Amino acid sequence: MTARGDRILGIGLLVLAVAYGWVAQGWPEPFGGAETVGPETFPTLLAVVLGLSSVYLILKPDPDTKWPMGRTGAEILLSIVILALYAFLLEPLGFVISTTLAVSALCWRMGARPVSAFLTGLISAVVVFVLFNYALELSLPAGLLEFE
User: Where are the domains of the chain?
Assistant: First the structure.
């Protein structure tokens, strides 16, 4: 990818950041009124980080970037597939199960042993779930683990 390719990618990501941030602002106000931390907070922060990164990519592209081929390119493509499946399975399976699976698979692909990768995925999913649901009071989908 050349400097021109970096700029095109930066423009595309900037459009994505603006659209993502715009949609996040349209989410309904939580029950009980407006709060400083609501359902739009985290997506808005992600949109800002993506937007700033995109602007940097547009203004300061790497002139001699080479797109990875072979095994590295295949690993990147596999990671994208795992993340797309994660987004698709988040609601039906729930946050803890889908995050455990995604983080475990990514850790394993980065060289962790299967048991270590699974434990990393499980612990990180449970910690983030507890932080969001109980500390920030932002509910994440429970999916299959929902008890009624």
Answer: 1-66, 68-148
